[in-house]
Specification:
Tetramer of two alpha and two beta chains. The alpha subunit is responsible for the aldol cleavage of indoleglycerol phosphate to indole and glyceraldehyde 3-phosphate. This protein is an alpha/beta fold and 256 residues long. Helices cover 48% and strands 15% of the residues. Strands 5-4-3-2-1-9-8-7-6 form a nine-stranded parallel sheet. Helix 5 packs across helix 6 and helix 6 packs parallel to helix 7. It starts with a helix and ends with a helix.
């Protein structure tokens, strides 16, 4: 079953799906392992595994700091692949995707990176700085391998641009909730509602909304307007401030 088909099946059973995010190696792979276990047990549908990069231009200060910490600690792309394989095998009910920036994939070798991603059981990739016009071989190779190459809508995307991007996507569309980088609070107002209406009209793919989603109230406000909410910075801050044990109850409360 394709990622899109399974997410649509799950949506028939849940009011809204949840995708979480973590930076591999922050604060350590051992902590990542514990956090993923709590996320999986709490009913998360998808998890973004971010391969650290030195210039994560879409990410705000919290995730930027986590990337730099991981790099300073010596995390390697090889370690990320090995860890991702372990997680995909351990938690088959979760869809794992690599999130990173194109330089990582380019340096590894585009074909080799995608082939290995598929071979270890991940469902797709989120390459934050690769527009479809510059990623034609990435898109075609992903399609051939059965990987979902996740594409982005933003509030500044025209209707025509949305349709073009959606035609290149697979799995789901990542709808960036506001301008700027990750981490800042998103305002839930008529402007966001109008944007999500445009997103829905542009594609039949499931819509995942991220950037600044932090609370159960945010999730409730997205219910009926999006198929999946994305939580990133909030979980990293939670682990920093309260420890791994707080993750499970936090996720359960979000979905409650």
């Amino acid at each position: 079953m394709s990622l899109q088909e399974d997410l649509q099946r799950r949506r028939q059973q849940k009011r809204i799906l949840l995708m979480t995010h973590l930076v591999l190696g922050y604060p350590s792979l051992a902590v990542n392992r514990e956090v993923i276990g709590q996320m999986a047990a709490s009913g998360v549908d998808c998890i973004e595994l971010q391969i650290p990069f030195s210039e994560p231009i879409a990410d705000g200060p919290v995730i930027l700091k986590a990337n730099q910490h991981s790099l300073d600690s010596g995390i390697t792309v090889e370690q990320c692949f090995q860890f991702a394989r372990e997680m995909a095998a351990a938690f088959p009910g979760v869809h794992f995707l690599f999130m990173t920036y194109y330089n990582i994939m380019f340096k590894y070798g585009e074909d080799a990176f995608l082939a290995r991603t598929e071979s270890i059981g991940l469902r797709g990739t989120i390459i934050a700085d690769l527009p479809p016009e510059e990623g034609k071989t990435y898109l075609s190779t992903s399609k051939r391998l059965g990987l979902s190459a996740i594409q982005f809508f933003t509030p500044t995307s025209s209707d025509d641009r949305m349709r073009t991007v959606a035609g290149c996507g697979d799995g789901f569309i990542y709808c960036v909730a506001r301008r700027g980088v990750t981490g800042r609070q998103t305002m839930f107002d008529d402007t966001l509602d109008q944007y999500l209406d445009r997103c829905r009209q542009a594609t039949d793919l499931p819509l995942a909304v991220g950037f600044g989603i932090t609370s159960q109230q945010d999730i409730l406000l997205l219910t009926g307007k999006a198929d999946m909410a994305v939580i990133g910075t909030a979980t990293i801050q939670l682990v920093d401030s309260r420890g791994v044990a707080a993750v499970g109850p936090f996720i359960t409360a979000l979905l409650g």
